[in-house]
Structures are given as structure tokens and as C-alpha cells.
Amino acid sequence: MKVVEVLWGDAWISTDDKSIKKARKLKPVVRTTIGFLVAENDDAIVLCTDFYADDKKTINAPMVIPHGMIIDWWEYV
To answer: What is the C-alpha separation between 57 and 16, in angstroms, rounded?
Structure first.
């Protein structure tokens, strides 16, 4: 599997009170995630943290990042 790095804007939540004026200025948290590329489909990129080397058919900790949240991504050899 290829290793990829994804730069993406993540949703977040806060329980703090904010004025509407301040709330309108809030932005997504920009994250960088590195993982094994499981799939790229019409909806998202699917990564995982681990795959089992013995069978290469089972993965662990899948992560789905919708295309609309992706800022950029790179493949590594």
C-alpha cells in the first residue's frame, strides 16, 4: 500500500460561550495525517494506520476524509 500525507480541514466543537460576532470568524482546524492509502473513491480518501502483513487483507483504524475537507495530499514511495 502507498503511504500518503493529507492536509485537511477538520470539524471541531467547543462548549465555550461565544458571541455571534466571534463565532462567525471560527475556522476548521487544519490537520496533517499520514497513513496507508486504502482507497480513493468519489466521496473520500480512506486511510489506515496499520495493515496485517501476513494476509494484507485486514486493516486497523480506518480513517475516512471526505474530498471536500481535503486541502492537498501527497503520495510517498
So the answer is: 43
- Say how far apart CA 21 and CA 77 lie, in whole Å: 46
Of 42, 68, 33, 48, the closest CA to residue 2 belongs to 48
- Our count of domains for the chain comes to 1
Q: In the structure grid, which three cell numbers stand for residue 63, read together?
A: 480513517
pLDDT in tens, 26-74: 999 999 999 999 999 999 999 999 988 888 789 999 999 999 999 999 9
Q: Give the gyration radius of the chain's Cα atoms.
A: 16
**If DSSP codes are grouped into helix, strand and coil, which group holds residue 54?**
coil
70 grid coordinates = 481535503
User: Which stretches within the chain are classed as H helix?
Assistant: 20-23
CA distance 6 to 14: 24
